[in-house]
Amino acid sequence: MDWTVYILKCSDDSLYTGITNDLERRLAAHDSGAASRYTRSRRPVRLAWSEPSADRSAALKREAQIKNMSRPAKMELIRRLA
Question: Whole-model pTM?
Answer without folding.
Answer: 0.94
